[in-house]
Amino acid sequence: MKPSSTSSSRLGWLDKAVLVHIGVLLVGSAWAFGGNIWWSRLALSIWASLALPLTLISFLRKDTVGDEARARKWWLLPPLLYAALVITSTFNPSFATLVIEGDSLMAHKGAARPNWPSTVSATGSLDSLWLGAGVYLSALNLALVLRSRTALRGIMILIASNALALSIFGTLQSLSSAGFYFGSATSPNLRYFATFIYNNHWGAFMILSLSVALGLLFYYTRRIHGRDLWHSPFSAALLGVLLIAATAPISASRAATGMAAVLLTIATVHALATIARNRRRQHRSVWPPVALVLLLMLSATAAVGWLALNSIASRYTETREALAQNQSLWGARIELYQDTWELARQKPVFGWGLNSYGIAFQLERPRPLPEDRQYESSYVTAHNDWLQSVAETGFLGTALLVAMSALPLAALPRHSRGHPLVAYPLLGFGLVLLYAGIEFPFSNAAFLILFWTCLFAAVQYARLQPVGRSAELPGGAP
Predict the structure, then answer these.
(1) Which of 219, 192, 186 is nearest to 205 (CA)?
(2) Per residue in 434-448, pLDDT tens?
(3) What whole-number distance in Å separates Cα of residue 366 and Cα of residue 223?
(4) Within 10 Å of residue 461's Cβ, how many Cβ atoms?
(5) Neighbours of 414 (CB within 10 A)
(6) Which residues are CB-contacts of 246 (< 8 A; sequence separation ≥ 6)?
(7) pLDDT 10s digits, 184-226
(8) Which pTM was predicted?
């Protein structure tokens, strides 16, 4: 069944409720410590819970919305099975709480039913499931309810605008060395950026936001019918894209810098190829606009390098000192992955339980950790979300997580896959999935919310896109 697209003026109360609900999640999580402080996660979990009645209403409606929602019922099977796996594990704990000299400790006693799903902490697993399920349903409602491409573009504009505001906030905060939240708060990690406690969490969040911003840039460039592209809103939009991308080196995140470079390179090649094709159709010289674009990108790169000079220098010095001391940059991380894999092999089907890694991993490395150990080496996470997922929920739980995104992606119409508001968000989606193989972005609530929102917004936009729309830049560009 092909959904019909409606104009923004015909949005019903359910459409508006879904938009407000996801909008509050997106903005609130990003500005409240990236959603990674206890009261922020609690507030987000409560607010995300409102997605359930919205989902139920969409299924119960006797109209086009209800028909479309019921047609997508299979999308709910993987998350329901995943929730059943986690809830079942809470009735079969494998650790017990002991109190020794006034201190509470978790001791491994073994699960009563070793071949059944189990968990280290029922409370920890349920808390994580509460937030994750609410966030997933909140984003899924975009695909179940919205029938307006204008409304979906509005969500994407909110994502890009929010990232731009955070980028300006973080850049000014970094350049002024004013401290976290300009000195009004203290971060447990010295490598913070903007409102995010960990700069690599910001990096993953920024990459997804940048991919959406690039999609919007290409989309609105197509809509400009005037002769002078550079005196249109295109110039301001391009500046916004560059400001967001600049935060990668400014935040001192090497991985984010690499991913941003990949995104911008692809976007530049796309723009140059489209410009060249359009200029040849008009029998005009290709080289003047191509040279202008290349000069712009080189100038922007030089400006960003100058702004991020201190951050780049500090990371370069750190890397050089580590190499001078014969320390492998990946040696400790590989050992961590090997130990995590050994932990996962002990319970390959169901895992140790959702949100159990920090405690279960002590079975592999029982030695106490120094109090002054760096945050990124604390082993509370595996620094590899894929491996950690296998360790926590086994291959079964990880397969269900993959299915949660695979089923919606399988519904992408072939004709709309090249549209900029589909292709670029999904390009960012793929990059952060690769990034999750060397870091832990999914432990950040703001990223998790943005991740699912980008997926379902792009999928639904693709399903609403009419056949035969081109993704090219206009003939007069630039």
Answers:
(1) 192
(2) 999 999 999 999 999
(3) 60
(4) 27
(5) 8
(6) 167, 171, 303, 304, 307, 308
(7) 998 888 889 999 999 999 999 999 999 999 999 999 887 665 5
(8) 0.90
Which pair of structure tokens corresponds to residue 225?
Answer: 């019918």
Tokens representing residue 436 in the block = 């999750």
